[in-house]
Protein backbone atom coordinates (compact mmCIF):
# COMPACT_ATOMS: atom_id res chain seq x y z
CA UNK A 1 0.00 0.00 0.00
CA UNK A 2 2.84 2.43 0.84
CA UNK A 3 4.13 2.24 -2.73
CA UNK A 4 1.05 4.17 -3.89
CA UNK A 5 1.26 6.94 -1.28
CA UNK A 6 3.93 9.09 -2.95
CA UNK A 7 2.77 10.46 -6.29
CA UNK A 8 6.27 11.80 -7.01
CA UNK A 9 7.66 8.24 -7.07
CA UNK A 10 4.78 7.05 -9.24
CA UNK A 11 5.40 9.87 -11.73
CA UNK A 12 9.09 9.06 -11.80
CA UNK A 13 8.39 5.39 -12.63
CA UNK A 14 5.84 6.19 -15.35
CA UNK A 15 8.16 8.80 -16.88
CA UNK A 16 11.05 6.28 -17.03
CA UNK A 17 8.89 3.67 -18.72
CA UNK A 18 7.35 6.09 -21.19
CA UNK A 19 10.70 7.74 -22.00
CA UNK A 20 12.55 4.44 -22.44
CA UNK A 21 15.45 5.27 -20.14
CA UNK A 22 16.31 7.06 -16.93
CA UNK A 23 18.41 9.66 -18.71
CA UNK A 24 15.62 10.49 -21.18
CA UNK A 25 13.06 10.66 -18.38
CA UNK A 26 15.33 12.95 -16.35
CA UNK A 27 15.49 15.38 -19.26
CA UNK A 28 11.70 15.19 -19.68
CA UNK A 29 10.80 15.88 -16.05
CA UNK A 30 13.75 18.25 -15.56
CA UNK A 31 15.47 16.53 -12.64
CA UNK A 32 18.94 15.06 -12.44
CA UNK A 33 19.52 11.47 -13.49
CA UNK A 34 20.82 10.46 -10.00
CA UNK A 35 17.65 11.93 -8.43
CA UNK A 36 15.43 9.90 -10.74
CA UNK A 37 17.48 6.76 -10.09
CA UNK A 38 17.07 7.24 -6.32
CA UNK A 39 13.32 7.67 -6.73
CA UNK A 40 13.08 4.46 -8.71
CA UNK A 41 15.12 2.57 -6.09
CA UNK A 42 12.89 3.96 -3.32
CA UNK A 43 9.77 2.83 -5.16
CA UNK A 44 11.13 -0.68 -5.75
CA UNK A 45 12.07 -0.95 -2.06
CA UNK A 46 8.51 0.01 -1.11
CA UNK A 47 7.16 -2.57 -3.57
CA UNK A 48 9.59 -5.23 -2.34
CA UNK A 49 10.43 -6.27 -5.89
CA UNK A 50 12.05 -5.05 -9.09
CA UNK A 51 9.84 -3.10 -11.45
CA UNK A 52 12.42 -2.67 -14.22
CA UNK A 53 15.23 -4.89 -15.60
CA UNK A 54 18.25 -2.85 -16.58
CA UNK A 55 21.51 -3.76 -18.27
CA UNK A 56 24.04 -1.88 -20.34
CA UNK A 57 22.00 -2.25 -23.52
CA UNK A 58 18.32 -2.01 -22.67
CA UNK A 59 15.61 -1.60 -20.06
CA UNK A 60 12.45 -3.67 -19.77
CA UNK A 61 9.46 -3.75 -17.43
CA UNK A 62 8.97 -6.81 -15.24
CA UNK A 63 5.64 -8.60 -15.06
CA UNK A 64 4.99 -7.02 -11.67
CA UNK A 65 6.11 -3.70 -13.11
CA UNK A 66 3.51 -3.96 -15.90
CA UNK A 67 0.68 -4.42 -13.39
CA UNK A 68 2.09 -1.66 -11.20
CA UNK A 69 2.37 0.64 -14.24
CA UNK A 70 -1.33 0.30 -15.02
CA UNK A 71 -2.30 1.06 -11.43
CA UNK A 72 0.12 3.98 -11.23
CA UNK A 73 -1.29 5.52 -14.41
CA UNK A 74 -4.82 5.16 -13.02
CA UNK A 75 -3.91 6.85 -9.72
CA UNK A 76 -2.04 9.68 -11.45
CA UNK A 77 -4.98 10.20 -13.79
CA UNK A 78 -7.37 10.48 -10.84
CA UNK A 79 -5.01 12.91 -9.09
CA UNK A 80 -4.68 15.08 -12.21
CA UNK A 81 -8.45 15.14 -12.71
CA UNK A 82 -8.99 16.08 -9.06
CA UNK A 83 -6.43 18.87 -9.38
CA UNK A 84 -8.12 20.07 -12.57
CA UNK A 85 -11.52 20.18 -10.84
CA UNK A 86 -10.03 21.96 -7.83
CA UNK A 87 -8.37 24.54 -10.09
CA UNK A 88 -11.61 25.03 -12.02
CA UNK A 89 -13.54 25.41 -8.76
CA UNK A 90 -11.36 28.37 -7.83
CA UNK A 91 -10.94 29.97 -11.25
CA UNK A 92 -14.17 29.44 -13.19
CA UNK A 93 -17.75 30.34 -12.36
CA UNK A 94 -19.43 26.96 -12.25
CA UNK A 95 -21.00 24.63 -9.72
CA UNK A 96 -23.63 24.93 -7.00
CA UNK A 97 -24.29 27.87 -4.68
CA UNK A 98 -26.07 27.30 -1.36
CA UNK A 99 -27.70 30.59 -0.32
CA UNK A 100 -30.08 31.81 2.36
CA UNK A 101 -32.04 34.94 3.16
CA UNK A 102 -34.85 36.07 5.42
CA UNK A 103 -38.26 35.17 4.01
CA UNK A 104 -39.64 38.52 2.82
CA UNK A 105 -36.33 40.00 1.68
CA UNK A 106 -35.59 36.68 -0.02
CA UNK A 107 -38.86 36.65 -1.93
CA UNK A 108 -38.95 40.30 -2.95
CA UNK A 109 -35.30 41.31 -3.33
CA UNK A 110 -32.89 38.36 -3.15
CA UNK A 111 -34.69 36.14 -5.67
CA UNK A 112 -34.35 38.74 -8.48
CA UNK A 113 -30.72 39.25 -7.41
CA UNK A 114 -29.97 35.51 -7.63
CA UNK A 115 -31.87 35.25 -10.92
CA UNK A 116 -29.73 37.96 -12.52
CA UNK A 117 -26.51 36.34 -11.26
CA UNK A 118 -27.48 32.91 -12.61
CA UNK A 119 -28.47 34.33 -15.98
CA UNK A 120 -25.10 36.08 -16.23
CA UNK A 121 -23.28 32.86 -15.19
CA UNK A 122 -25.11 29.95 -16.84
CA UNK A 123 -22.72 27.29 -15.47
CA UNK A 124 -23.73 28.14 -11.90
CA UNK A 125 -26.82 26.75 -10.16
CA UNK A 126 -28.20 27.68 -6.75
CA UNK A 127 -30.43 26.66 -3.89
CA UNK A 128 -32.04 29.46 -1.86
CA UNK A 129 -33.25 28.75 1.68
CA UNK A 130 -35.65 31.27 3.21
CA UNK A 131 -35.52 31.43 6.97
CA UNK A 132 -36.31 34.22 9.44
CA UNK A 133 -34.02 32.62 12.02
CA UNK A 134 -30.81 32.30 10.00
CA UNK A 135 -28.18 32.34 12.76
CA UNK A 136 -26.81 28.86 12.08
CA UNK A 137 -27.21 28.59 8.31
CA UNK A 138 -23.48 29.08 7.63
CA UNK A 139 -22.64 26.36 10.16
CA UNK A 140 -25.13 24.09 8.38
CA UNK A 141 -23.22 24.38 5.11
CA UNK A 142 -24.63 27.39 3.28
CA UNK A 143 -22.15 29.47 1.30
CA UNK A 144 -23.64 32.96 1.53
CA UNK A 145 -26.53 34.66 3.32
CA UNK A 146 -28.25 37.99 2.82
CA UNK A 147 -29.55 39.24 6.13
CA UNK A 148 -31.14 42.53 7.22
CA UNK A 149 -30.64 43.99 10.69
CA UNK A 150 -27.90 43.60 13.26
CA UNK A 151 -25.51 40.68 12.89
CA UNK A 152 -25.40 38.63 16.09
CA UNK A 153 -23.22 35.77 14.83
CA UNK A 154 -19.54 36.50 15.53
CA UNK A 155 -18.38 33.51 13.49
CA UNK A 156 -19.25 35.03 10.10
CA UNK A 157 -17.81 37.79 7.97
CA UNK A 158 -20.51 40.39 7.31
CA UNK A 159 -20.01 42.75 4.38
CA UNK A 160 -22.23 45.86 4.51
CA UNK A 161 -24.52 45.95 1.48
CA UNK A 162 -26.62 49.07 1.78
CA UNK A 163 -29.63 49.88 3.90
CA UNK A 164 -33.41 49.58 3.90
CA UNK A 165 -35.28 52.82 4.67
CA UNK A 166 -38.24 52.30 7.01
CA UNK A 167 -41.46 54.32 7.04
CA UNK A 168 -44.28 54.58 9.51
CA UNK A 169 -47.45 53.67 7.61
CA UNK A 170 -51.13 52.99 8.21
CA UNK A 171 -54.34 52.58 6.26
CA UNK A 172 -56.23 55.78 5.36
CA UNK A 173 -59.24 54.53 7.35
CA UNK A 174 -57.18 54.18 10.53
CA UNK A 175 -55.66 57.66 10.13
CA UNK A 176 -58.94 59.39 9.27
CA UNK A 177 -60.68 58.04 12.33
CA UNK A 178 -58.20 59.64 14.73
CA UNK A 179 -57.01 63.14 15.67
CA UNK A 180 -54.12 64.42 13.51
CA UNK A 181 -50.75 63.25 14.82
CA UNK A 182 -47.89 65.78 15.02
CA UNK A 183 -45.47 64.00 17.34
CA UNK A 184 -44.72 60.38 18.08
CA UNK A 185 -46.39 60.77 21.47
CA UNK A 186 -49.68 61.46 19.66
CA UNK A 187 -49.64 57.82 18.52
CA UNK A 188 -49.68 56.46 22.07
CA UNK A 189 -53.31 55.34 21.86
CA UNK A 190 -53.00 53.95 18.33
CA UNK A 191 -52.87 50.17 17.79
CA UNK A 192 -49.47 48.95 16.67
CA UNK A 193 -48.30 46.03 14.55
CA UNK A 194 -44.66 44.96 14.91
CA UNK A 195 -42.00 42.65 13.52
CA UNK A 196 -40.53 40.04 15.86
CA UNK A 197 -36.78 39.82 16.29
CA UNK A 198 -34.71 42.36 18.19
CA UNK A 199 -32.06 42.42 15.44
CA UNK A 200 -34.60 44.08 13.11
CA UNK A 201 -36.39 46.83 15.02
CA UNK A 202 -37.96 46.89 18.43
CA UNK A 203 -41.28 45.24 19.27
CA UNK A 204 -41.79 47.15 22.54
CA UNK A 205 -40.84 50.66 21.48
CA UNK A 206 -40.44 52.84 18.39
CA UNK A 207 -37.81 55.55 17.93
CA UNK A 208 -38.02 58.23 15.23
CA UNK A 209 -35.74 61.17 14.45
CA UNK A 210 -36.43 64.68 13.23
CA UNK A 211 -34.39 66.67 10.71
CA UNK A 212 -31.98 67.67 13.48
CA UNK A 213 -31.49 64.00 14.45
CA UNK A 214 -33.34 64.54 17.73
CA UNK A 215 -34.92 61.28 18.86
CA UNK A 216 -38.50 60.63 19.92
CA UNK A 217 -39.24 57.25 21.52
CA UNK A 218 -42.63 55.73 22.23
CA UNK A 219 -43.26 52.50 24.18
CA UNK A 220 -45.73 50.26 22.34
CA UNK A 221 -47.83 47.22 23.09
CA UNK A 222 -48.51 45.68 19.66
CA UNK A 223 -51.83 44.03 18.94
CA UNK A 224 -49.97 41.77 16.52
CA UNK A 225 -46.34 40.66 16.33
CA UNK A 226 -45.38 38.74 13.19
CA UNK A 227 -42.18 37.20 11.82
CA UNK A 228 -42.86 38.50 8.30
CA UNK A 229 -43.05 42.07 7.04
CA UNK A 230 -45.46 41.04 4.27
CA UNK A 231 -47.76 39.74 6.99
CA UNK A 232 -47.46 43.06 8.82
CA UNK A 233 -48.22 45.00 5.66
CA UNK A 234 -51.40 42.98 5.09
CA UNK A 235 -52.54 43.66 8.66
CA UNK A 236 -51.80 47.38 8.25
CA UNK A 237 -53.69 47.43 4.93
CA UNK A 238 -56.69 45.97 6.73
CA UNK A 239 -56.59 48.80 9.26
CA UNK A 240 -55.36 46.74 12.23
CA UNK A 241 -52.71 49.24 13.26
CA UNK A 242 -49.72 51.40 12.39
CA UNK A 243 -46.30 49.91 11.71
CA UNK A 244 -42.76 50.54 10.53
CA UNK A 245 -42.41 48.99 7.08
CA UNK A 246 -39.59 48.88 4.48
CA UNK A 247 -39.95 51.23 1.54
CA UNK A 248 -39.48 48.51 -1.09
CA UNK A 249 -42.53 46.68 0.26
CA UNK A 250 -44.99 49.60 0.51
CA UNK A 251 -43.87 51.85 -2.36
CA UNK A 252 -46.78 50.89 -4.61
CA UNK A 253 -49.26 51.03 -1.71
CA UNK A 254 -48.19 54.60 -0.97
CA UNK A 255 -48.51 55.53 -4.66
CA UNK A 256 -52.01 54.04 -4.91
CA UNK A 257 -53.20 55.43 -1.57
CA UNK A 258 -53.76 51.96 -0.06
CA UNK A 259 -51.36 53.08 2.68
CA UNK A 260 -50.32 56.53 3.85
CA UNK A 261 -47.22 57.80 5.61
CA UNK A 262 -47.68 58.66 9.27
CA UNK A 263 -45.51 61.47 10.70
CA UNK A 264 -43.66 61.82 7.36
CA UNK A 265 -41.33 64.50 8.80
CA UNK A 266 -39.90 61.95 11.25
CA UNK A 267 -37.61 59.17 10.14
CA UNK A 268 -36.65 55.78 11.54
CA UNK A 269 -33.06 54.56 11.44
CA UNK A 270 -32.34 52.70 8.21
CA UNK A 271 -32.05 48.93 8.55
CA UNK A 272 -28.63 47.67 7.43
CA UNK A 273 -28.25 44.75 5.02
CA UNK A 274 -25.25 42.42 5.18
CA UNK A 275 -23.91 39.70 2.93
CA UNK A 276 -22.55 37.06 5.31
CA UNK A 277 -20.24 34.09 4.76
CA UNK A 278 -17.78 31.93 6.66
CA UNK A 279 -14.43 33.63 7.12
CA UNK A 280 -12.33 30.52 7.73
CA UNK A 281 -13.16 28.87 4.40
CA UNK A 282 -11.31 29.17 1.10
CA UNK A 283 -14.02 30.52 -1.17
CA UNK A 284 -14.58 29.02 -4.63
CA UNK A 285 -14.68 31.50 -7.50
CA UNK A 286 -18.48 31.25 -7.82
CA UNK A 287 -18.92 32.17 -4.14
CA UNK A 288 -16.55 35.14 -4.25
CA UNK A 289 -18.16 36.37 -7.46
CA UNK A 290 -21.66 36.07 -5.98
CA UNK A 291 -20.65 37.98 -2.84
CA UNK A 292 -19.29 40.87 -4.90
CA UNK A 293 -22.33 40.83 -7.19
CA UNK A 294 -24.76 40.78 -4.25
CA UNK A 295 -23.05 43.70 -2.50
CA UNK A 296 -23.13 45.83 -5.67
CA UNK A 297 -26.75 44.90 -6.37
CA UNK A 298 -27.98 45.63 -2.87
CA UNK A 299 -26.09 48.91 -2.52
CA UNK A 300 -27.61 50.08 -5.81
CA UNK A 301 -31.02 48.81 -4.70
CA UNK A 302 -30.84 50.76 -1.45
CA UNK A 303 -29.73 53.90 -3.25
CA UNK A 304 -32.57 53.81 -5.79
CA UNK A 305 -35.12 56.47 -4.78
CA UNK A 306 -38.80 55.51 -4.69
CA UNK A 307 -40.91 56.48 -7.67
CA UNK A 308 -42.48 59.91 -7.20
TrEMBL record:
Pfam families referenced in this protein's UniProt entry, alphabetically: HTH_1, LysR_substrate
Domain (HTH lysR-type): residue spans on this chain: 5-62
Record-linked InterPro entries: LysR-type_TF_proteobact-type, LysR_HTH_N, LysR_subst-bd, WH-like_DNA-bd_sf, WH_DNA-bd_sf
Keyword Repeat: no
Superkingdom of origin organism: Bacteria
Coiled-coil intervals, chain numbering: none
Cited Gene3D superfamilies: 3.40.190.290, Winged helix-like DNA-binding domain superfamily/Winged helix DNA-binding domain (1.10.10.10)
Keywords noted in UniProt: DNA-binding, Transcription, Transcription regulation
Protein family per UniProt: Belongs to the LysR transcriptional regulatory family.
PANTHER family hit by this protein: HTH-TYPE TRANSCRIPTIONAL ACTIVATOR TTDR-RELATED (PTHR30537:SF5), HTH-TYPE TRANSCRIPTIONAL REGULATOR (PTHR30537)
Protein name (database record): LysR family transcriptional regulator
Source organism of this protein record: Prosthecobacter algae
Amino acid sequence: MRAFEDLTLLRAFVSIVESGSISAAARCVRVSQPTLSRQLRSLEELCGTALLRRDTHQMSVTETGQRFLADARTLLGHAEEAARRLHADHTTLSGQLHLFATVDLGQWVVTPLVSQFLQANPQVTATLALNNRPLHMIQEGCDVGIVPGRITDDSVIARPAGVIPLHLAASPALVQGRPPAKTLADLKSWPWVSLSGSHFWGTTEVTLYDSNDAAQTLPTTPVLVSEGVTSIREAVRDGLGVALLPDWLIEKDLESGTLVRVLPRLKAKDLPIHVVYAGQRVLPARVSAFIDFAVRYLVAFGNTPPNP
